[in-house]
Structure formats: C-alpha cells, structure tokens
Amino acid sequence: RAKEQGGGHHQFYRADMNERALERVQLLNRLRRAQPQGELSLHYQAQRRLTDRSLLGAEALLRWHSPQLGNVPPDRFIPLAEESGLIDAEGGLGDWVLARCCATLAAWQGGPHAQLRLAANLSARQFRNGRLPATVARLLTEHGVNPQRLELEVTESLLLDHDQATQQQLFALKDLGVALALDDFGTGYSSLAMLRRVPVDVLKIDRSFVKDLGQDGEADALVRAIVGMAKALKLQLVAEGVETEAQAAFLNALGCETGQGWLFGRPVPLEDF
Ligand code: C2E
Ligand code: MG
Ligand code: MG
Ligand code: MG
After folding, report:
1. Ligand 2 mean position to 60 CA, how many Å?
2. Where is the EAL domain (predicted)?
3. Is residue 247 lining ligand 1, measured as CB closer than 6 Å?
C-alpha cells in the first residue's frame, strides 16, 4: 500500500515537472520571438543627487510585453534568457539592450539630457564569448556616443569567478572609457581585495540595506561601512530602492551622494522620462 502510494506521488510529481518544463519551453519560444516582433522595450529610472535632487543619470531596465502573456517581469524572463543563451547570442537580448542604450544616448546629445549617464545591466553570460568589449566599442562608434556617458552594471558573482578572460574584458571596457558599476552591492561575497583588483567606478548599495535604514541599527552600520569603504577606494555610490524621504535623508547624512528609487521616479518609457 505504501508502495502504491509512493508510486502515485512519484507520478504526480513527474506530471508536475513535465508541466513546468513545458511552460518553460513555451515561454522560451515566445521570448525568442519577442525581440523581432517588437515586444521588448527599455524603461528608464532616474538617478538623482541626494543634496539637491538634480538628475545625474538613469538606469535602463528591460521590459517585455507579450500579447499573449501580458507584462512578463524581468525576474522571470532574464534567467531564462541567460540559461538558454539568448542573452549572449550575437544580436541577442544583451546586444539589443546595449544598442538601444547607445541610441538613447545619441538622441540625448545636444539636449537637456546631454550630460546624463545611462546604465545598462549586463549578465555574467555576456562575458563568456569574449566579444563584449568589441561589441560595445562598435556600438559607441556607430551611434557616435561619448563612452563616458555609458555605464555598465555587473554583479558581484561575475567577479567571484577569478576568471582571467572576464578580468581582461573588464579592463578592456574600462579602456574604452565606459564606467563600470557593481550592482546589488552587499548581497554577494565580494571582498575588499576583489574591489581593489577590478576596475569598478560605482557601487550600487542594494535595496535590502536601504529598506531598513533608520529602523535597524545593523542596516545603518552596514551602509556606514559601505560608504566608508567606497570613500577609501574613491568609488562613487548609488543607493538603490530609495522609497522614502527618511531614507534619502539618512543616506545623505551618511555621505552617499546619489539615489535611485520610487521616491525619485519609477522606471518609465523613454518618452515619459
Ligand atoms: P536591478 O538591476 O537591481 O534593478 C533594480 C530593480 O529595482 C528594478 O526591478 C527596479 O524596477 C526596482 N526598483 C527601483 N526602484 C525601486 C524602489 O524604490 N522600490 C522597489 N521595491 N523596487 C525598485 P526590475 O525592473 O523588475 O528588474 C529586476 C532585475 O532584472 C534587475 O535588477 C536586473 O538584475 C534585471 N534586469 C533588468 N533589465 C535587465 C537587462 O537589460 N539586462 C540584464 N542582464 N538584466 C536586467
Ligand atoms: Mg541594475
Ligand atoms: Mg540593482
Ligand atoms: Mg537589485
């Protein structure tokens, strides 16, 4: 009897797995067609100076509107694009994001946004085939964009690999003149030693630390420590997920110069930015 039941569970589990695998395949098939069918776009979120709230830059965030599925959140489709290789394929999603960012920077030239810096998110996978620096160089030239206006966000996990090829590409990107930012800082396992070894310009303090500021002594102490470290290493700081005036005031008092979050604006389409 127990055996029978066990078998039944097993079958149920397998059916469930198959359904999930099928769902994944369907989502991936739709995602493959998303870019050629014009279902992808970038939203832009403001980054502001905490002292006077002046606009310093923006982060570009990928959006997918599927006619069948509606808006699919990045946390759902980016991992799929990474696992499937769609993110780093030639002309794939990663290249598309970079090209759009360069086009936007080109459009901003000569206007009120000419001095802004635009940040694009990169997946670790985009460092796998080794052609990232060449792609970025080509796109900057094609669009006639000042490299200093472009910032590339990478995560700590990328730097943990101690991979020489990755390291070389980071330096090659730096040589182009683009800025490098470490996204979601504090959630990974990066060390002080690593921060000295990689050519990053900006630390983005993860939202999870900002959330508890002013309420949780530990969060305060951690942000204080990150600010101190950034100053020692001469890195710029951007706090993520700033939602309240209290958080902004706290960050400013601690010496963090830039904030990004709903308090300063949600991610919006280019025409609304
Ligand atoms: P991220 O790079 O850390 O982006 C910040 C996320 O926080 C965004 O979520 C943004 O909408 C959200 N956010 C901004 N301000 C606030 C706030 O005040 N409160 C709260 N609760 N959330 C806030 P989003 O757009 O859903 O993107 C999620 C993640 O997907 C991004 O995290 C990034 O890791 C990834 N992603 C987005 N676009 C791209 C892309 O073009 N390429 C790659 N590789 N990854 C991307
Ligand atoms: Mg980011
Ligand atoms: Mg982030
Ligand atoms: Mg984040």
Report:
1. 8
2. 24-273
3. no
